[in-house]
Amino acid sequence: DPSSHSHDEL
Amino acid sequence: MNIFRFLGDLSHLASIFILIHKIQTTRSCRGISFKTQAVYVAVFVTRYLDLFTTFVSVYNTSMKIFFIASSCYILYLMKVRFRPTNDPSIDTFRVEYLVGPCAVLALIFNYGYSVTEVLWSLSIFLESVAILPQLFMLQRTGEAETITTHYLAALGAYRALYIPNWIYRYFSEGYVDPISVTAGLVQTGLYLDFFYVYFTKVLQGQKFELPA
Fold first, then answer.
1. Could you tell me which residues are beta bridge partners of residue B208?
2. N or C of chain A: less Cβ packing under 10 Å?
3. Per-residue pLDDT tens over the stretch A1-10
């Protein structure tokens, strides 16, 4: 599920 | 966003400013591994491909642009501006030994088989080992300028601070990113020897010197 890994970190 | 991640990002920013300051004030990139810096450019470019497709926040976008731009600027300083002070003969770590295995890992472990997801994964794995050419160089020369050790300490602290951030996010949001966590633990682990010498010598006012 890509939404649980939104890559919101840097 | 939580305090650990924010402090981690600040530490990452600080490390870049310290490095640029070191190169500009000493007018030399002596002691800095070009290979490590080049890998960082690859890390930021492959990770932030989503810059034009995904908007998280102004903070997130600004930081991404800054990391790409500053890492390219450092390469420019090393290869053009202060080129004569860069000594490739002591920067001998074989980067292909890092890129190859990381590419294989990225193809196996990722969050989706798309170009952007595999490259994101590659950037995470590559970042975790990007410091190795630099640490290898340090090991070879056995010493480092104090300012260079501050750069490395700030850079190591950045990923170390992401660990409490991941713990915090697990409990507050149920968020887990196993790829980042695994690579982040490895990345932080690589700094342990360095941190030991940094805390026991440099912060006590002594020069960074490894035992012969």
1. B144
2. N
3. 444 578 999 9
In the three-class reduction of DSSP (H, G, I as helix; E, B as strand; rest coil), residue B143 is classed as: strand
Min CA distance, A3 vs chain B (Å)? 10
Residues of A in contact with B9 (CB under 8 A): 10
At position B39, the amino acid (one-letter code) is V
In angstroms, the CA B6 to CA B12 distance is 10
B106 vs B204: CA distance, rounded Å: 41
Cα R_g (chain B), whole angstroms:
17
Structure-token pair, residue B8: 């981690």
Cα separation, B48 vs B120, whole angstroms = 8
* B16's tokens: 């870049």
Q: CB-based burial of residue B27 (10 Å sphere; 0-12 exposed, 13-18 middle, 19+ buried)?
A: exposed
User: In the prediction, which pLDDT does B211 show?
Assistant: 84
How far is residue B138 CA from its own chain's centroid?
Answer: 15
pLDDT at A2: 42
Confidence of residue B67 (pLDDT cuts 50, 70, 90): very high
Q: Do A10 and B177 touch (CB under 8 A)?
A: no
Backbone angles phi, psi at B69, to 5 degrees: -65, -45
- Whether B120 contacts chain A with CB within 8 A: yes
The complex scores an ipTM of 0.86
